[in-house]
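so i finally got all the pieces together for this one. its two components total, 580 residues if u count the protein bits. some of the lines might not be protein, just check the labels. i wanna see the whole assembly predicted at once instead of chain by chain like last time, that was a mess tbh
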Amino acid sequence: MSYIKSIINNKAKLFLTLIAAVAIMAMLVPASAGNAFIQNMIIMMLLWAGLASAWNIIGGYAGQLSLGHAGFFGIGAYTVVLLAVKLEVSPWLGLIAAVFLAVVAAVIIGWPCFRLQGPFFALATVAVGEVLRILAINFSDLTYGTNGISVKMEFGLGFMLFREKWAYGIMAIAFLALVLYAVKKLEKSRLGYYLVAIREDQDAARSLGVKASRAKLTAYMISAAFTAIGGVIYAQYILYIDPDSVFASALSMQMVLMTIVGGMGTLWGPVLGAVLMVPLDQFIRAYFGGSVHGLHMVIYAVILILVILVIPRGIGPTLSDWVKKYDKKAESEGDRI
Amino acid sequence: MKPILEVKKVSKLFGGLPAVNNVSFDLAENEILGLIGPNGAGKTTLFNLISGYHEISKGDILYRGHKISGFLPEQVCSQGIVRTFQVVKPFGEMTVEENVMVGAFCRTADPNRARVKAQETINFVGLDKYAAMQARNLTIADRKRLEFARALATEPKILMLDEVMAGLRPNEVDDSLELIRKVRASGITIIIVEHIMRAIMTICERILVLDHGELIAEGTPQEVTSNKKVIEAYLGKEESADV
């Protein structure tokens, strides 16, 4: 009973429980379990919520605009698939290798860039994301180039490959829960305070003893690690990867935009962004994609521009402000009676 | 007694132009030192040099006998020297308490201890009413207080205040002076840059006067205000006034 009470009192917990419940039901209830479209959408929603939350660590909390997170996503996907296909390494070990490589890449990009202030980091991330894509195309001996690679078809938990979609649903839920748990821990830690302070005013932060470049680098490494895990899950789910699907700059943009729409630097913002935008994207694609080539992109962009113009802080913080105002109003009215 | 801070023949050139030129002075433990001078005299530049924001062109800065010139701002702070900014820089999206916690984290990694320290400091500067308020909603006077509190939370030995009283009403200036005296009483050495003469004259034991990057006078408030060079720096020479 007390657990239920604590869930109702804690809006964040309530929200998470609702998402998990809806996702699990949609996976298991026969009516929708047969509907591959909805199942796929839910898995993508969870995966994107995790990816946007990972981006949020460096982009939202630390305020460092990374426009190349597809690089880490692609490193994750390629590492796990290549290791499995070429060396028959279990994807679970591949996952560890993927995380390691993504963290190394983050250090290589972040180490020189975080010493500088200004747009250098954002520019470097754009460049690195593109360079990785081009490398994946050109080093075709290793990566099979634009032909892409198919995941080896060996099913079972040991191979991280499943015939049933719900298993991927559980993997995506676990991924999202892991990222959110880490963000929640981060928010309450010294590093979390430091990141927000750096975002708000780096000079002031440094005058108070904040080792700014180290804090930013740590955040970038954590963010890269989680993004790589997302890439691994994606590869194991889609079963086929090529440079244009896992290193696409559009992937980087998606992580940024979902976080902005939902609310940067908040725990639930990126989740809200993914829950709203993944279905929106699929809906627009389904209804307008066929008629005029590229029309769905235009509509998507217009909706985004509207959201950013009307509520620049994102939907999450704006909504919670409304709720607070309403609560206050209700309270003061209650006093009058 | 050995000085806590020694500034030795420090110069800073911006593209060949000296903003601070061959300045030397000592800071005694637990004194309040005033730093005055007309606009553009190099007071803030000197602060930036001591706190590590600018690289020194020539000279040395010693803290308790060891060299700190060349340190990064965050290293200078962990040594125990902290500064405030003339243009206040609150972390706008954080609450007052969280702002001060960032300072307190300089000495502890534990959020609970940082919070306790922050609450103490907030009470000390008299911001307790606003602890839960977002910093961007504070008035200018309270923002200056917050700047003060954040710096204090790092447990400094030397506190450098850059115009913490500019733009305040007379009664708020009195509050600030009271606060500075309280801080000094707790054993902290203070360097203060200020344009409000009433404040500087009442609180400082010793005053340095900078003009065009050079140290032109040093002494007690009375000595400095009757110094001919200082009067010239502020008001111009008498001959030119006649013309």
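The mean pLDDT of chain B is 89.
The radius of gyration of chain B is 18 Å.
anyway lmk what u think
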